[in-house]
Amino acid sequence: MGKLDGKNEEEMTVALASPILIGKELVAIYQI
Q: CA-CA distances (angstroms) from residue 32 to 18, 21, 24, 26, 27?
């Protein structure tokens, strides 16, 4: 563990956030 921790956390956050954002967009499309 060291200098890469911050970058790895950012990548994990993006990896988790992307499907959530896509899911919200799909839900919004289906609601219309």
A: 22, 17, 13, 10, 9
Three-class secondary structure of residue 1 per DSSP: coil
Amino acid at site 9? E
pLDDT at 1: 45
The angle formed by the CA atoms of residues 15, 32 and 22, to the nearest 5 degrees, is: 5
Write down the pTM of the prediction.
0.45
Q: What is the DSSP letter of 3?
A: T
Q: Please name the residue ranges forming H helices in the chain.
A: 5-31
